[in-house]
Amino acid sequence: MSFDYMSRAKQLREEIIANRRAIHRYAEIGFELEKTVAFVMEQLSSYGYQPRRVGKAGVTCTAGKGGKVFLLRGDMDALPMAEETGLPFAAKNGHCHSCGHDCHTAMLLAAAKMLKEQEDRLEGTVKFMFQPAEELLGGAVDMIQAGILENPKVDAGMGLHVMVGNETSKTGEVFYANGPANFSGDAVTIRVRGRAAHGSTPEAGVDAITIAAHIVIALQEILAREINSMQPVVLIVGTIHGGTTCNTLAGEAVLECSCRAATHETRAFMKRRIKEIAEGTAKTFRGEAEVEYVYGMPPMVNDRELSDEIGGYCAELLSPEKVHVIPVSNGTEDFTAVAAQIPTAFLHLGAGSKEQGHEFSMHHPKMVVDEDALPIGAALYAFTAEKYLTNHK
Length: 393
Prior knowledge:
The chain contains ten helices and 16 strands.
């Protein structure tokens, strides 16, 4: 019979909240997580672990010994935006944990504490992955390259993300996709080169702004005419810069684009067509275009069997009516890099819906989390890990 992780997590409620608020106050970004990493390692050491650094700013440790290895991941980095919540523990350094990663770290710390307390019960090994730079879509890759999935070798894993400010994100309810779970995310820069000329002699130049405008319109044809209308895709031109004065033709313009797709095939098609259209349109108007893929992350696909298994554990811990299977999400998540290596399940935990008064959603500087969700998330992490190991010994 499983230990009552929910009751224990509720006993730890004030500690979990205090940990979350400590991390929230000094919100750090990317791989620059000096205070956060020190805090996490200090807490893990106090629980009886011997944590170690992995990669640029990751932390890991293990509970149990031998057997199958189940990975629990929580990301730690914040966003480069000023917080506007007015909370007494709000960050003052121009960064903001409106991503919810402070919650993930606090919940995973509590799960680590509980699993250490119940270590003799574990019929395998739990490996903890405290990850940096999720918002850069680079932290998971960095930890993988540094060996997080080896020594001991990981058999399966789980990620958990709070969800706030949606119509359905009621506190304590769990959501997961069975199969495709998150869109790919690619950032693309298109540099258009023309030839500058004075406005009195436009025939002497090649207008990079005009070319850029044609590229913007032409790219929309990918969505409107080249991809099945039932395929969920996104393609936006988020910034465009060019020119120096109002009475000269611009010699250069730069476009920054974002594209998202639910499948590997659609992502590859979009990347190819963006390059072809940009280069071809520029050539049509006597200019040149250079396309650079700045960074990207493939779509994340949950392992179907593992997702339903873990969904069952969530229903057992909470109740079946609080667990929901949902379609693919158009957000991007760098746990994708882990999912490409091992069977994984990525879940969302409701932490405040609009109906509950949480008006602002993720990545908004006024987003506020319902902290009652934190013990629930901690219990989900710990309970799922023990159940997986018991059923796969």
